[in-house]
């Protein structure tokens, strides 16, 4: 096999090995040995999302590759951090835009597509339109490669010319006819061994590419060993996450394993001080419960939890995280003193990361940047170079037909937020994706953040969400409202209730009126918000529905108060998740609990990370986040109601009630731990007053 083959400009090692005769292997086992080694060579560029789905998904994926495949040079870069720390300004520095100190803050999520087509100067990043994903170009180049290789092989085996060959792709001619909106067109049947007689039938842009490439090929006795695949520029999709804490609950939808995460913070902020954050509803500033250092760890932990485990190489856990400190120029002292202060800040962050399960995700070099200076004088180029180093390792191999489907879906999302699942399945059929690969493909697109697909959820399986940014807009109207014009006089009381976490159906329909939802799709998006733990529905005897929205409650910094002493009327149980409380798990757990145990027409008491709920005639439950020895835990306290006007001895909580509550809570927490969140190990802690130890623990099986 040839050495030093750069997959960036041509063949991969797997390509070369596939053409190897492997004559050194034993003849009886040659094919099997070659296949096993080929699998190892290709494993790095098979998407981790496919590998994580198991052997059946891998089998369907490999079969789809046999019908035509290409390598995809796409990656996502996430910018995370509090508002006003300089995330957007850092992105502007990458694009060599002038510094704007009055730049508007990012609202929820903003995306910027960057295309690095000039491989001679990879740091010359060019911004493209947000709807330019590069999928069409990748598909066309991959198709041209496949056709060129097919022609090359035919020429090597018989006399022919470019207008007399049987081309590889069966969907070339049909792709222009696909229109999922036309429900009355007959389904295109799969035609085995379909032959397309001439290049003139291929779309003109692809035919021209093939003809140009055929002219440049010089054939040798080795047949196709002499040609190179078309080069491909890297397309980076930059996602700039708004820093307001109220948006964090929806941003996790967009976390991806195939990404580089940049955690940005202000070097001038005291790491140990509570962060001052803005309430996007009122514009007021308040002290958050977390310090600036805790927020930095929070962002890294969020990336860790909401991604799949993989390695870019032996030294770097994926997704890689770059730490970027901004406002370097605002540190006191001369240039050398500012540099030393920045290094001291980074050293403190390194110490805080020590021993954490996500420590190996953080790249060892941390970057201090001044976005107010020209590109040539800032450290922007160093950060960009490292992002490119990581993203080039994220190349993956995809079936051509899958890219065709992705291309069609991206066109559809310009007109449709969602489509019925059967219409998307019909699109897959027309693109001639095999039936046994339908679910694998849709789950892959779900895993990489291209769409939302829940085939095993009865309430969600019949609809596929295509436009995730529109979903952000829908959820954002519930979590926080930016436009004061929406607050019509007749809805003032409903707005006040929403500020306390109570959402009336009438207000929700008003907020979503621009999306033109039917009653059926309105219910679908309610279930979708419930899926993400954003709302839960109140049990009431009235016809109008009411929902609880815990994310509307403000996470203010409060001094710790001693808990109320309920005596033997109460029992408390704590749950730990490997040393930290997973992001938004409390909110998701509480919404499920309210749905299960709420008493009709009974109103729970809602506060951020503290909820009280009557569950029974004689019992109520308090769910809250407790900090025990610097560890945040999920605390559940079951309390027997006090009998008034009686001298009778107080009773302990009913064992049957405690058992029912504990079983439900642990079943839900266990489901969360099994849902793919990394570094989570559920452990039960119970107070013990009969020993010198404050608590003993019991792992939850």
In a nutshell, what does this entry contain?
This protein has 20 helices and 25 strands. It has 701 residues and is an alpha+beta fold.
The strands making up the biggest β-sheet line up spatially as 4-3-5-2-6-11-12
Supply the CATH class of the largest domain: Alpha Beta
Using the alpha-carbon principal axes, give the shape.
globular
Number of helices: 20
Q: Mind telling me the CATH superfamily name of the largest domain?
A: P-loop containing nucleotide triphosphate hydrolases
What radius of gyration results from the CA coordinates? 29 Å
Distance between the termini: 50 Å
State the CATH architecture of the largest domain.
Answer: 3-Layer(aba) Sandwich
Q: Indicate the CATH topology of the largest domain.
A: Rossmann fold
Share of helical residues? 25-40%
Care to describe what's here?
The protein is α+β, with helices and mostly antiparallel strands and 701 residues long. Helices cover 33% and strands 19% of the residues. The strands form 7 sheets. The protein has a 7-stranded mixed β-sheet with strand order 4-3-5-2-6-11-12, sandwiched between helices. A hairpin with an 8-residue loop joins strand 17 and strand 18. It starts with 12 loop residues before the first helix and ends with a strand.
């Amino acid at each position: 096999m040839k050495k030093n083959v750069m997959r960036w400009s041509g063949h991969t090692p797997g390509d070369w090995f596939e053409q190897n005769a492997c004559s050194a292997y034993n003849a009886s086992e040659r094919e099997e040995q070659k296949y096993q080694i080929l699998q190892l060579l290709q494993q790095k560029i098979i998407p981790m999302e496919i590998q994580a789905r198991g052997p059946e998904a891998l089998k369907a994926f490999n079969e789809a590759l046999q019908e035509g495949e290409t390598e995809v040079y796409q990656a996502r870069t996430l910018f995370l951090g509090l508002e006003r720390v300089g995330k957007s300004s850092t992105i502007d520095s990458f694009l060599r835009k002038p510094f704007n100190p009055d730049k508007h803050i990012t609202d929820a999520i903003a995306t910027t597509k960057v295309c690095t087509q000039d491989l001679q100067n990879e740091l010359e990043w060019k911004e493209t339109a947000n709807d330019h994903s590069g999928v069409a170009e990748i598909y066309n180049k991959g198709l041209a490669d496949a056709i060129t290789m097919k022609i090359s092989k035919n020429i090597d085996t018989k006399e022919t010319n470019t207008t007399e060959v049987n081309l590889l792709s069966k969907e070339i001619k049909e792709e222009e006819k696909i229109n999922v909106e036309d429900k009355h067109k007959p389904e295109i049947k799969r035609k085995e061994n379909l032959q397309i007689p001439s290049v003139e039938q291929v779309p003109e842009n692809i035919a021209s590419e093939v003809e140009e490439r055929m002219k440049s090929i010089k054939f040798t006795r080795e047949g196709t060993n002499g040609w190179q695949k078309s080069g491909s520029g890297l397309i980076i999709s930059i996602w700039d996450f708004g820093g307001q804490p109220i948006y964090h609950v929806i941003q996790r939808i967009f976390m991806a394993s195939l990404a580089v995460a940049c955690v940005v913070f202000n070097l001038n902020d005291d790491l140990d001080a509570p962060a001052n954050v803005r309430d996007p509803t009122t514009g007021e500033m308040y002290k958050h419960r977390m310090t600036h250092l805790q927020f930095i760890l929070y962002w890294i932990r969020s990336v860790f939890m909401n991604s799949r485990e993989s390695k870019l190489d032996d030294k770097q856990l994926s997704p890689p995280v770059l730490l970027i400190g901004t406002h370097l120029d605002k540190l006191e002292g001369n240039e050398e003193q500012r540099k030393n202060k920045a290094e001291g800040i980074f050293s403190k962050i390194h110490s805080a990361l020590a021993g954490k399960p996500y420590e190996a995700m953080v790249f060892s070099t941390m970057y201090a940047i001044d976005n107010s200076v020209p590109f040539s004088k800032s450290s922007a180029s160093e950060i960009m170079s490292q992002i490119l180093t990581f993203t080039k390792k994220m190349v993956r191999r995809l079936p051509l037909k899958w890219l065709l489907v992705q291309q069609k879906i991206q066109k559809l999302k310009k007109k449709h937020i969602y489509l019925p699942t059967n219409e998307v399945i019909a699109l897959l059929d027309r693109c001639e994706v095999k039936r046994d690969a339908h679910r694998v493909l849709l789950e892959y697109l779900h895993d990489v953040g291209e769409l939302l697909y829940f085939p095993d959820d009865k309430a969600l399986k019949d609809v596929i969400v295509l436009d995730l940014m529109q979903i952000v807009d829908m959820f954002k109207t519930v979590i926080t409202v930016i436009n004061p014009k929406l607050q019509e006089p007749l809805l003032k009381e409903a707005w006040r209730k929403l500020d306390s976490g109570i959402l009336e159906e009438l207000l929700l329909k008003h907020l979503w009126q621009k999306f033109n939802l039917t009653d059926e799709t309105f219910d679908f998006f309610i279930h979708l918000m419930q899926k993400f733990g954003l709302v839960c529905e109140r049990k009431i005897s009235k016809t109008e529905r009411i929902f609880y929205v815990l994310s509307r409650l403000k996470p203010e910094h409060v001094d710790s108060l001693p808990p109320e002493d309920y005596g033997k009327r109460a029992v408390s149980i704590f749950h730990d998740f490997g040393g930290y409380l997973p992001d938004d798990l409390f909110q998701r757990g509480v919404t499920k609990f309210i749905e299960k145990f709420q008493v009709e027409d009974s109103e729970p008491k809602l506060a951020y990370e503290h909820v009280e709920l009557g569950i029974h005639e004689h019992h109520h439950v308090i769910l809250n986040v407790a900090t025990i020895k610097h560890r945040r835990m999920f605390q559940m306290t079951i309390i027997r109601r006090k009998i008034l006007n009686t001298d009778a001895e107080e009773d302990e909580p009913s064992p049957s009630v405690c058992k029912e509550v504990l079983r439900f809570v642990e079943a839900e927490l266990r489901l969360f731990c099994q849902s793919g969140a990394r570094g989570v190990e559920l452990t039960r802690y119970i107070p013990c007053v009969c020993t010198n130890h404050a608590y003993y623990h019991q792992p939850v099986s």
